[in-house]
Design brief:
This protein is an alpha+beta fold. Helix content is 32%, strand content 13%. A hairpin with a 4-residue loop joins strand 3 and strand 4.
């Protein structure tokens, strides 16, 4: 098989380092942003693609881990089957590079999966299942499940270590907007069929609040880590436990002046900005929550331009995707693909294996103050 390390070096997958990666302007215009493209994938043969998966799952030391018994060894390679056979005589199981992963029992070739991951990473504001299916030449159902398996991998790989330092926090209303009547009424100047403002239907059954908490990096670096959650209401009942769980006590927390944040000063250095008057208390370096607003800008553009709607059942999946995109925004495509591929090869799919046969998640992932971990 081809050497996976050599293949990685061929596409130049070194992540951008510090400010030097941004010195020439926007990162997407830099050379690092095009170090791995569809042109690279199309030139790869089957052995090279296979080596990418092997390297992402087990590294490049030549050993494999049997998914059945956990034995770590240089297992017997069966070239005609593109599989290994476990050296443990008590096991002897045949397994492939995708056994026991999100892509177990796959029908898609590895090259198509790798191509789909690259397309997913290259579309910085997300991609719809229809668009991915057309580009890969597969059915909509295949594109839909592939995208959600990637989102499932992102959720599993997201760090839950508390944020610290300067943290920007905000919430946004999503979903649950009803349309106005077909005919325009004289009592309003709004156009017929426009969506009713959120404040006129605050108890809609599909209304959810996306909460985002973003840790600021060094001056000019922007956000370096993002944690998101979905809550029923932006109230102290949900906001306070959420922030206490994910933000280290004593950190500097910046929010707007919503009453739900009123008691944060008991545990944090809480600073607020009045959005009815200004976006920031100073032109530069003032109190603001612009990092949180930046997250919502990307999320809303994904909804408007790609998915068009997000229902509560899978809302946390989409919000986690956008958080991952924000945190990886200045990483090279090769590093993004490898990070996503490694996460996808760690565990089998719980929510999306057999989705179109009726085996899917029954409830939404909603933040519960009583749970130890939101994803559990």
């Amino acid at each position: 098989m081809a050497n996976a390390t050599q293949l990685s070096n061929d596409v130049g997958d070194e992540p951008p380092q510090g400010k030097s990666a941004r010195s020439g302007g926007h990162f997407l215009l830099s050379r690092a942003a095009r170090d791995f493209s569809l042109a690279h994938v199309e030139k790869m043969n089957r052995a090279q693609v296979h080596s990418w998966f092997v390297n992402a799952r087990w590294g490049d030391d030549g050993t494999q881990v049997c998914p059945e018994c956990g034995n770590i060894d240089q297992h017997y390679w069966i070239k005609t089957r593109w599989q290994w056979r476990c050296k443990d005589v008590a096991c002897g199981r045949f397994f492939s590079v995708t056994s026991g992963t999100k892509f177990a029992d796959r029908k898609l070739p590895l090259k198509s999966i790798l191509r789909g991951m690259l397309i997913f990473c290259a579309n910085v504001k997300g991609i719809s299942a229809c668009s991915l299916a057309r580009q890969l030449g597969v059915a909509y159902q295949t594109g839909f499940v592939l995208l959600h398996k990637l989102r499932e991998s992102i959720i599993e790989a997201t760090s839950t270590l508390p944020l610290e330092g300067v943290v920007h926090i905000d919430g946004a209303h999503v979903s649950g907007r009803i349309r106005k009547p077909r005919v325009k009424t004289p009592s309003t100047k709004r156009q017929a069929r426009d969506r009713v403002p959120f404040e006129e239907d605050v108890l809609h059954k599909n209304r959810r609040i996306i909460m985002t908490m973003r840790q600021a990096g060094e001056d000019g670096e922007g956000a370096v880590r993002t944690i998101v959650a979905v809550v029923p209401r932006e109230s102290a009942e949900h906001v306070e436990p959420l922030i206490q769980r994910h933000v280290k006590k004593g950190s500097k927390v910046m929010t707007d002046e919503l009453a739900a944040y009123g008691r944060l000063s008991m545990l944090y250095d809480h600073q607020t900005v009045n959005h009815s008057k200004e976006f920031s208390t100073k032109p530069k370096g003032g109190v603001n929550n612009n990092l949180a607003e930046s997250y919502f800008a990307r999320f809303r553009r994904m909804v408007i331009g790609q998915t068009h709607r997000v229902t509560p059942k899978y809302m946390f999946d989409y919000t986690s995707e956008v958080a991952w995109r924000e945190d990886m925004r200045r990483c090279s495509p090769s590093l993004q693909v490898k990070t996503l591929l490694t996460a996808s090869l760690k565990k089998p799919s719980v929510w999306w294996r057999g989705y179109w046969q009726g085996q899917n998640r029954s409830t939404e992932i909603l933040f519960d103050p009583g749970q130890l971990d939101q994803g559990s």
